[in-house]
């Protein structure tokens, strides 16, 4: 379990992640507009959250693998209250769980979509939000392609 050292970016109201060394490739890729996750060298499955071993076969060897960035909304919730200063301008906003084409599920936000248009099964694609010079957050938006 990570210690609770999270900071809040005052301009955006965003919680800033505590980045551990083993997570650096993930965050560096996001800065470059790519979603990369760990792919097991033994069973070829992709996993998330980031961790030292494959949860499918316990393999310890992996590559950082480029994801398609496409998926569907598995579930979602809409927030009508700003829980941190700076989030007021986003209210109401959606927190979604995306199931990637490569299977892992990610919890994130949906951008560029009215909250009353969100539905389970909706096709979405990765979007990237630069919050600070060091932190780019993975977001999603409707897949119009
Ligand atoms: Zn594996």
SSE order and pairing:
Elements: E1 7-9, E2 14-16, H1 24-31, E3 36-40, E4 46-47, E5 62-66, E6 70-79, E7 93-100, E8 105-110, E9 123-130, E10 136-142
Antiparallel strand pairs: 1-2, 3-4, 3-5, 6-7, 6-9, 7-8, 9-10
This protein binds zinc ion.
The site of zinc ion (ZN) has 8 residues, from loops.
Descriptive account of the structure:
- It is a single chain.
- The chain has one helix at residues 24-31; strands spanning 7-9, 14-16, 36-40, 46-47, 62-66, 70-79, 93-100, 105-110, 123-130, 136-142.
- It is mainly beta.
- It has one domain (12-142): OB fold (Dihydrolipoamide Acetyltransferase, E2P) (Beta Barrel).
- The strands form 3 sheets. It has a 5-stranded antiparallel sheet with strand order 8-7-6-9-10.
- The longest helix has 8 residues, at 24-31.
- The protein is globular.
- The structure holds zinc ion.
């Amino acid at each position: 379990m990570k210690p609770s050292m999270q900071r809040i970016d005052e301009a955006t109201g965003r919680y800033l992640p505590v980045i551990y060394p083993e997570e650096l490739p993930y965050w560096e890729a996001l800065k470059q507009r790519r979603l990369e996750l760990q792919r097991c060298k033994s069973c070829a499955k992709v996993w998330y959250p980031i961790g030292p071993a494959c949860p499918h076969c316990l393999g310890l060897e992996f590559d950082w693998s480029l994801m398609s960035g496409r998926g569907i909304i598995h579930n979602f919730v809409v927030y009508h209250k700003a829980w941190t200063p700076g989030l007021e301008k986003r209210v109401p906003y959606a927190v979604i769980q995306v199931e990637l084409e490569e299977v892992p599920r990610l919890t994130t936000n949906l951008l560029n979509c009215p909250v009353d248009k969100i539905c389970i099964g909706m096709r979405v694609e990765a979007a990237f939000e630069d919050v600070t010079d060091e932190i780019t957050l993975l977001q999603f938006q409707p897949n119009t392609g």
